[in-house]
Specification:
Layout (H helix, E strand, L loop, with lengths): L1 E4 L5 E4 L2 H8 L1 H4 L1 H23 L30 H36 L1 H15 L3 H12 L3 H28 L2 H8 L4 H12 L1 H24 L11 H8 L8 H28 L10
Antiparallel strand pairs: 1-2
Length: about 300
């Protein structure tokens, strides 16, 4: 709440009107936020509508194999005559679904570990050393090992990608909780005998919501990249499932004579990841008071 002065020298509180106005005009002052949200929304609509707006991604047409992009086939056809645009649209469903699922799993588990480690000093060392051990293993190698041991399936792929992302989320949340733990209002709540669950729900989690939201967007983008890498290497989604990684893996063999097979799914993946990262940067600017003109209100 800010205080505004009137002509007569009296002061009256501004019940958040200016702040609401700043938030409402933020997309206009930050066009990248509007662009990133619009692009992600467009990909989401395409993913949901792909069964109705695209032809069968598995339909073969050997007579029209390796056809360049045209009005009939905007993205061309692949080595067996399948529509590249149909497979790319269906691949949007796979990538977005896995990215969202990984972001949800990594956020729920990582936030839980980070809050416990940051608030309860007794378990901090053990929890963080366990997270350090997981982070010491390269994410792609850990994901490939899990898929190789258990087998490729959507559940296994989501689990394999989520495991390397959990420590990153946990460390971000722990850092925020350690800072909030020393704030006066938290110490006052502890001194007054507030219940731990109440303190975490009312003071700790709301204060850490900003970093959690920003990190979630980065996890979402990283998950889509890892899924594409696994599929490209043959350790991700099955070959019969149209995904951006599978399409790029198949298209690399025809890169010189039919670059559109690899190019279009690669561009769609890059655009989605870029939009997610820009959304994270915009959320950081919106939720961090120190980045808003240097004024504390």
């Amino acid at each position: 709440m800010t205080i505004t002065s009137t002509a007569g020298g009296l002061e009256k509180p501004d019940l958040g009107g200016n702040r609401l106005g700043r938030i409402a005009s933020f997309p206009l002052r930050q066009p990248m936020l509007t662009a990133s949200c619009g692009l992600l929304l467009a990909f989401g609509v395409l993913a949901l509508a792909s069964p109705w707006i695209s032809p069968d991604p598995a339909a073969l047409d050997p007579l029209n194999r390796l056809t360049p992009p045209s009005l009939d086939q905007p993205f061309g056809t692949d080595q067996v005559g399948r529509s590249v645009i149909a497979r790319a649209l269906w691949g949007t469903r796979v990538s977005l679904w896995i990215g969202i699922a990984v972001a949800v799993v990594a956020t729920l588990v990582g936030v839980t570990i980070g809050v416990i480690a940051g608030y309860f000093r007794a378990v901090d060392t053990v929890a963080m050393r366990a997270m350090d051990a997981v982070m010491a293993i390269p994410a792609i190698l850990l994901a490939i090992a899990l898929v190789a041991l258990i087998g490729a399936s959507p559940f296994v792929i989501i689990t394999a990608i989520s495991v390397p992302e959990i420590p990153r989320m946990a460390r971000v949340v722990r850092a925020s909780v350690l800072t909030l733990r020393e704030r006066v209002f938290v110490e006052a709540a502890i001194t007054c005998g507030g219940r731990t669950t109440t303190i975490l729900r009312r003071h700790i989690l709301p204060g850490a919501a900003g970093p959690i939201m920003v990190q979630t967007t980065y996890v979402f983008a990283s998950a889509m990249i890892l899924e594409s890498i696994l599929s490209f290497l043959g350790a991700g989604t099955p070959p019969d499932v149209p995904s951006w990684g599978n399409m790029m893996s198949e298209g690399r063999q025809f890169l010189q004579i039919a670059p559109w097979i690899l190019g279009f799914p690669a561009l769609m993946l890059a655009a989605t990841v870029l939009a997610a990262n820009l959304l994270g940067d915009a959320l950081r600017d919106l939720l961090d008071p120190s980045l808003q003109g240097g004024e504390v209100r």
